[in-house]
Write a structure and sequence with these properties.
The chain is mainly beta. The protein has a single domain, classed as Methanol Dehydrogenase, Chain A, CATH 2.140.10.10. 5% of the residues lie in helices and 39% in strands. It is built from 2 helices and 43 strands. Strands 1, 36, 37, 38, 39 and 40 form a 6-stranded mixed beta sheet that branches. Strand 10 and strand 11 form a beta hairpin. The longest helix has 19 residues, at 5-23. The termini are far apart.
């Protein structure tokens, strides 16, 4: 038998992708589970265990809406999925759904039966109001994607933050840990979230009335990390990140990203905080104060990191800024609300350039339409003379001012997928550790505001499908499925079926999950489920 180097290369690529996927799961692991926003802590959005849906059967004849999981309240959080849970004496595949009405549900993912429902409101409380912020729904309860640890507690635990207010108008945010099988509180929860952080005048205090959680929670090395955003930039607010021990739910670390300034909330259009295998956290901070005067190591002299791509170290149990990148015009961008932080961070698998040098990269984009690729070991910091980063593709995404990105990309098989506002779904190929300067393929459809957050399903490296939810005028949504090898080949969209068979309402920043032959999408009244038709 002759040695075939091309076959060996194929095996290496497949194994590398599998190792990257396994190494980036948060908490416990179980085949086919979706335990965190975008499938893994690298936030790649790829689900590589899909053996049912494929390029041949995702079409309007064989595929469509098969069920609905009704809820009280709008669903902003991405649904999560755990197979093979034993509930009420029966082994089931279970979907977990959280709503802005502070309700958490467990549904049988096959029969769509509601298994349990829990209200996370305290006595005489209602979900927090929206502070007259038109960008949000009338109530603000659970707005970020929870995270699941299958190894915590007797049956696995789901962690989430719920927001509420009492009859006197006092606001609360609480971290909950709930048993997957019963919905009962674990770890002595819930814990009321509070915090202070030192600054140049003494300290800054976390005011629960000014904040809500939009970015997905992160489970990393036994800690739950939560980042905070504001209501429509209503002052006063600053940028907070907090860490909690998952066993006790006690706060173990806290950081303010604009302690001597203002703004700088973390929202990322709902994307989750990202993390690497060394325990570092990555986020893109929203518009806010940035100190253009730097210290001797190149860090902002007053510790203000508004409108920056930030790497946080968790060494020693504390949160500290280890590195960052801020655009050369970061102050000007923040002044006109053209913030980098409208998009989420994604980590790429390790890769080598043409000279054999290994690179560890992260990628992000925001409202300025540019794609930024940073070296995670030397992110570039700040220079008013220009950006000193690994790679930048200017004007790549969106349709002009405020056009850019309100989402995070997805990754699969050497491709990065973006959908900007007023733009097509685009695939950028990676060669020698660099993105192509132009898309390798793109959809014919132009997505209106806010664009879309793509997700990918595949069986290993085969049958790759890119999924995206389009917002259409009014409150309607459209699910699209494309061949990952070439986005010009649209396999299916939910407008193709006759009548109302596949219609559903739209939920802002919806990112579908794919698991065991089904696609789950947030809506205004629950979760719509697509799959192979009977």
């Amino acid at each position: 038998m002759r040695f075939n180097p091309r076959f060996l290369l194929f095996v290496i690529i497949v194994l590398s992708e599998a190792i990257f996927q396994v190494g980036c799961t948060g908490g416990g692991s179980r085949t086919n589970a979706v335990l965190t926003r975008s499938n893994d802590v690298a936030r790649t959005g790829q689900y590589l265990n899909e053996s049912i849906l494929n390029l041949g059967n995702v079409n309007s004849t064989q595929f469509g809406k098969v069920g609905f999981l009704p809820t009280g309240g709008l669903v902003l959080a991405q649904p999560l999925y755990v197979p093979n849970l034993k509930i009420s004496g029966k082994t089931r595949n279970v979907a977990f759904v959280a709503t802005v009405s502070d309700l958490l549900y467990a549904f049988d993912a096959d029969t769509f039966e509601q298994l349990w429902q829990v209200s996370l409101l305290g006595p005489n409380e209602t979900p927090s109001d929206n502070h007259s912020c038109s960008a949000l729904s009338p109530e603000i309860g659970i707005t970020s994607t929870p995270v699941i640890d299958l190894d915590a507690g007797p049956n696995g635990t789901i962690f989430l933050v719920a927001s509420s207010k009492d009859s006197d108008g006092n606001h609360y945010h609480r971290l909950h840990a709930l048993d997957l099988v019963t919905g009962e509180e674990q770890s002595g929860g819930p814990t009321t979230i509070q915090g202070t952080f030192p600054n140049l005048t003494g300290s800054v205090t976390f005011d629960p009335a000014q904040y809500f959680v939009r970015s997905g929670l992160l489970l990393l090395d036994g800690r739950i990390y939560v980042a905070w955003a504001s209501y429509c930039d209503f002052l006063p607010y600053t940028g907070w990140v907090m860490g909690y021990d998952e066993s006790s739910l006690q706060q173990v670390s806290i950081l303010n990203l604009t302690p001597n300034g203002s703004y700088g909330g973390v929202w990322m259009s709902g994307a989750g905080l990202a993390a690497d295998a060394s325990g570092n956290i990555y986020l893109i901070d929203g518009n806010g104060t940035f100190d253009t005067v730097l210290d001797a190591e190149g860090f902002p002299i007053n510790g203000n990191y508004g409108n920056a791509f930030v790497k946080l170290s968790t060494t020693g149990g504390s949160l500290q800024v280890a590195d960052y990148f801020a655009p050369y015009n970061t102050v000007e961008q923040s002044a006109v609300d053209l913030d980098f932080g409208s998009g989420g961070a994604m980590l790429l698998p390790d890769m080598k350039d043409e000279g054999g040098t290994a690179w560890q990269l992260a990628i992000g984009a925001g409202k300025d339409q540019n794609i930024y690729v940073v070296d995670r070991n030397s992110m570039g910091k700040f220079s008013p003379a220009g950006n000193n980063i690994y790679q930048e593709i200017d004007g790549a995404l969106g349709d002009g001012h405020y056009g850019g990105v309100y989402a995070k990309p997805a990754y699969f098989n050497g491709m990065v997928y973006f959908v900007g506002r007023g733009d097509t779904l685009k695939a950028y190929s990676i060669s020698n550790a660099k993105l192509s300067s132009n898309p390798a393929s793109q959809s014919s459809l132009v997505y209106t505001y806010p664009g879309a957050t793509p997700a990918v399903s595949a069986n290993g490296s085969l049958n790759g499908i890119v999924w995206a939810v389009e917002r259409v005028p009014g409150v309607s949504g459209v699910l699209h499925a494309y061949d990952a090898r070439g986005l010009g080949n649209e396999l299916y969209n939910s407008n193709q079926a006759a009548g109302d068979r596949d219609k559903f309402s739209y939920s802002k920043y919806a990112e579908p999950i794919i698991a065991d032959g089904k696609v789950y999408i947030q809506t205004s009244t629950g979760v719509v489920v697509f799959g192979l038709l009977p």
